[in-house]
Specification:
- By secondary structure, this protein is of the alpha/beta class.
- The protein has one domain (11-190, 223-246): NAD(P)-binding Rossmann-like Domain (Rossmann fold).
- The protein is built from nine helices and seven strands.
- It has helices spanning 20-31, 43-55, 70-84, 108-118, 120-136, 157-177, 195-200, 205-213, 223-233; strands at residues 11-15, 35-40, 60-64, 89-92, 139-144, 182-189, 245-248.
- A seven-stranded parallel β-sheet has the order 3-2-1-4-5-6-7, sandwiched between helices.
- Strand 5 (139-144), helix 6 (157-177) and strand 6 form a beta-alpha-beta unit.
Amino acid sequence: MSNPLDFSGKVALFTGAATGMGLATARAFAEAGANVVLADYKEETVKAAAQRLVAAGHKAIAVRCDVSDDAQVAAMVDRTVAEFGRIDAAFNNAGVMAHIAPTADSTREDWDRVIGINLRGVWSCMKHELRHMERQGAGAIVNNASVGALTGNPGIASYIASKHGVVGLTRTAALEYVKKGIRVNAVNPGLIDTQVARDVVSGNEQAYEDIAKNVPIGRAGKPEEIASTVLWLCSPGASYVVGHALTVDGGMTVV
């Protein structure tokens, strides 16, 4: 019986892949046999990450990309296809946290920044990925939303709005492309041990630890735990999962 998590010969693209969940997921796919493309606006960091994967015996390249710039997204996808010939899986992960402020005190500049990366960036990535996948007649896309897509959270209105939007966008694209052999899903991470999570508490380590302890499972999640979820969602093992936003949060949204 074949291994449903064997991605040998497949091509996978990851945004926000210099660190955190994006890098952990790229590594998981590489270890599963995929050729991987790591994209991030942090050019030197993402290049170093890709080089580490190559040194470990994997096929990987790095691409500088600001997902809020549609031209850069188009170039990222074109580079992927030029290098490896196709795109079988994509994890649209790039995202930023809002500057914390009540809604009436938040700024237009911060709104545009967060929506531009977290929501418009996902739309832009999907648009270009879907065009290639449609020609192939197959593909799987996972968008990174958040438990913030399920609730409200005072002080980060633009972030919450962006993540609600990602889930709606995911569900709509899933219905549009499922009969073309493409599955589109999302993942809703809870508190995951990344820099973005620590930014919520402005680097206050004690506040971060207190939040982590209050997660029902008793800790923050690891980027690798999101990676394994995305790997499964893109695999034949999840062939009947369409338009779903899978919550991976240690029980945060149960209580």
